[in-house]
Amino acid sequence: RRFPDLLSFFIFVVTVYVRPAEIIDAWRGAPVAEIALPVCCVLSFMSAMIHQNIRPVVSDAYAGLLFVVALASMPANGWPGGMSVVALTFGPSMVGYFVTRVAIRSQDQLRAAGVLILVLSAFLALNGLLQYYTGAGLGDVRALGVAQVSDRQGEQDDIGEEELRIRGTGIFNDPNDLAFALVIAAPLNLWLLLESRRLFGWMALSCSFCSLLYATALTHSRGGFLGFATGIGLLLKNRYGAKAALAVVAVALAGFVTVAS
Known about the structure:
This protein is mainly alpha-helical. It has helices spanning 3-18, 20-23, 32-51, 58-76, 82-103, 107-134, 175-195, 199-219, 222-240, 242-260; strands at residues 144-150, 158-165.
């Protein structure tokens, strides 16, 4: 009875994070995402009909209202044709919300979904490290080179070594977007790590957390770095108190100054 909705969630999240059509040569150019979205909708609708116990919540109204407002804003600003653009760009997010709402309705399902997102985020991090150290990651994604400019008083600007910013495939092709994806997984990773009671699980989660932290640093995203520290700080505050959170904030500020410079 849980098969259709769990399958739809798996298909949707893997399609978003992994982008199979970009990393599998035989699938290059194939409309994988265009096929996956309607399949996820059908599977989630089937599950909703099977269970018939999905009660509406406030967030449903917020999500629907946001979509309606986005559509209405186009003709209101004199561009009726923009409604199709909104439907194509914002529509997949609504599909993702619907799929998630149907698939996750208990703590166990939430934990399983979190583990899946963590695994996929670790994949993004490792793919970023691969491109940083080898020159190209899966999907032939290459780190974005940005020249560092030093402005010295009385002299012309000196262009120093090129700074490499790792990125991902698909919607994570921008270093800042990749950083925000890693930020989502970091507190979840740490929570699972603190809850782990098995040596193998502790070692695996420790490695994944280090990869997320290092990959976030390699994106050179200031917002991503602060978001990473904020999420970890809040988790530690709830678990260990304000002193632990303040210690994390202090380290984050030092790290932020380093990244900003």
